[in-house]
Design brief:
The protein is of the alpha+beta class and about 200 residues long. Helices cover about 30% and strands about 25% of the residues. The chain has a six-stranded mixed β-sheet, sandwiched between helices. The longest helix has 21 residues, at about 55-75.
Length: about 200
C-alpha cells in the first residue's frame, strides 16, 4: 500500500519589533505574491515592512479619499490614473511602497509596457496620500513622505486625523502644516481637484 505524504502544519513566527528582516527585490516579489492579503513594503535598504490591516475608521476614511480622487478623474478628465492603497510602486531608489492613495500622469502610465502595468509599477507617483492610523508612527510616515519627494513625487499629503492636521509636501519647499483645514487643493499637479476634509475626518 503506497504511503501518503502529508504536509506539515504551517506555524506562525512572531518577530519582535526590534528585529529587522532584509529581503532582495526578488524575495520581496515572491513574498508579496504569496501573501496577497498583506500590505508589504520594502525600504531602499532592503528592510521588509509588514503593515497590519487598518481599523474601521481608517479604512472608511481611506476609501472615501480614493472615491473622491476617482470621481474627479472620471468627471473632470483628471489626465491621469488613480490608484488605491493596494497598489505597489517600485521607486527609483529600489524601495517598494504602497501609498494610501496616489495618482500618475497618463503619459507616464501609457509609457509603461503591459507587463510593467500588471506588476509593481516601476515609477514614483506624481501625487501621494498617506493617512495616519492610530497605530502609525508619525515620524516614519514623515520619512516616507520625504522618500516620495526624493524619488520624484510632485505633491504629497500626510493626513493626521488624530490631530486634525495635514502636512503638505512639495519638491524644493518647506513642509507646510495646516491645522484643522477644511479642504485641500491639488494645486497645479491635479488642477481642479479639491478634497473636502470635513467629509473625510468627520
Amino acid at each position: 500500500m503506497p504511503s501518503t505524504l502529508t504536509q506539515p502544519d504551517t506555524l506562525s513566527l512572531e518577530l519582535p519589533t526590534s528585529t529587522v528582516l532584509h529581503v532582495t527585490p526578488e524575495q520581496f516579489e515572491e513574498l508579496a505574491a504569496a501573501n496577497p492579503d498583506l500590505r508589504l513594503e520594502r525600504t531602499a535598504r532592503g528592510e521588509l515592512i509588514v503593515n497590519p490591516p487598518t481599523g474601521g475608521e481608517s479604512g472608511y476614511r481611506n476609501v472615501k479619499i480614493s472615491y473622491f480622487l476617482v470621481k474627479w478623474v472620471e468627471e473632470e478628465g483628471g489626465h491621469g490614473i488613480p490608484f488605491d492603497s493596494s497598489t505597489g510602486f517600485i521607486l527609483p531608489s529600489g524601495a517598494r511602497r504602497s501609498p494610501d492613495a496616489s495618482w500618475v500622469r497618463r503619459e507616464r502610465w501609457e509609457a509603461l509596457s503591459p507587463e510593467q502595468r500588471r506588476g509593481f509599477v516601476p515609477l514614483c507617483p506624481d501625487f501621494v496620500v498617506e493617512l495616519r492610523s492610530a497605530t502609525d508612527s508619525l515620524a516614519k510616515l514623515q520619512e516616507k513622505m520625504q522618500e516620495y519627494l526624493n524619488n520624484g513625487a510632485r505633491l504629497g499629503w500626510l493626513i493626521d486625523p488624530q490631530n486634525q492636521r495635514v502636512e503638505i509636501y512639495r519638491p524644493g519647499q518647506e513642509i507646510q502644516v495646516l491645522e484643522h483645514p477644511a479642504e485641500l487643493s491639488g494645486e497645479d499637479v491635479l488642477p481642479g481637484f479639491i478634497l473636502n476634509l470635513r467629509r473625510i475626518l468627520q
